[in-house]
Design brief:
By secondary structure, the protein is mainly α. The chain contains 9 helices and no strands.
Length: about 160
Amino acid sequence: MLEQLSGLVIHLIQSAGYFGIFILMVLNAAAIPIPSEVTLPFAGFLANQGSLVLLFVIITGILGDLVGSIIGYSIGYFLEETLLLSLIKKYGKFILVTEHDYQKITGWIKKHGAPVVFIGKMAPGVKSFVSVAAGITRVKFTKFLISNVLAALIYVSVVSFFG
């Protein structure tokens, strides 16, 4: 399944370019498990080949991550926690989040705040769901945005560059 998903990611980037990168990063940051670990290195590779411009790949990746993160934050902020937990129990396997993962992430955020968002946005497996958890725990929106943008700047730049 991962191989098929990777093929889909690569095809979308090849056919849609920067818009494809943007859409994939939005989905990834909004808790849909689209692997940015495939999206960004492949986009970086295409930039190295001259098909894309690395600076635009990075800007597009950061903007997509930001939009998706705001969507994720809004989902967490406006959904009632009991409803979110029931959705995780029922559909968590599709977005690769368990109830235990949810409790762990929200506990860390409640204890440490926005720094967990910053670190979580760079950690595979956590980064897709950390925005939802930040919304649930009511992290101050400006702190959330700053943490998110700084983490995206580092993560997107490094992963794209090594592609």
